[in-house]
What we know:
Blueprint: E1 5-14, E2 17-27, E3 32-36, H1 43-50, E4 58-63, E5 66-67, H2 72-78, E6 79-82, H3 94-104, H4 109-122, H5 138-150, E7 156-160, H6 168-183, E8 187-191, H7 195-201, E9 204-209, E10 212-218, H8 219-226, H9 231-240, H10 244-256
Helix pairs in contact: 3-4, 3-5
Amino acid sequence: MAPILEVRNLSKRYASLLAVDAVNFSISRGDVLGYLGPNGSGKSTTVKMLTGLLEPTNGEILFQGRPVRDDLIAYKRAIGYVPEEAQLYGFLTGWEYLELIATLRNIPERVFEAKAKAMLEAFTIYTYRDATISSYSKGMRQRIALISATMHNPDLLILDEPFAGLDVSSGIVLRRVIEQLAAAGKAIFFASPAIEVVERVCGHFVLLRKGKRIAGGNMAETLAQLGYTRLEEAFVQMAEQTDTAQTARDIVAAIEAS
């Protein structure tokens, strides 16, 4: 099956810093790709290039077989993007904001109203639809961002730490939504530090360290080849290169020192 999204030798340099170094991966219909790495590994820079917010220094991004740079506006219209920090218009109500997004995406009013009502109710914030976004909690703003990113039924979803700020119930709902969207044939790029969630919902993964891809592929097969039973073990040993048990002992010793 031809990939929905394909990344070839993607690189980004800031002066002397090579933030992303010749990364390759692809996502086909039904795939959920987990994109992992410690702070400073290049995850956020990759997301910004995938969403057209940053121009790559080198490499190519293909959407449905075509370079996105050929028609960046059409590409942005076709994808759904949930940023790590939802930057919404605080002076609008939740309903007004979603109505604005629907207008920009040419969603008919009747379709928008049905979708918005159903999704707001499912995320338990329909009651607050007429309150201004400035009064929303972080979790509520994140739910509005999720709804606005998916109303137009995109083939590709780019999720950058989408669980940030969600309560337990909403987090479980979102995990199941991701699973069901993948089962329906959507392609999903999922950048997250929540390793246990990535391990549950992602069939494939890419592990970064200092901008370089150091491991990746089918989740179960790649972990077996590397000699790990859990993704957390691979992450700590390969990406963080940290003896977590010793670090914990050092912290406790410092706390207890008299």
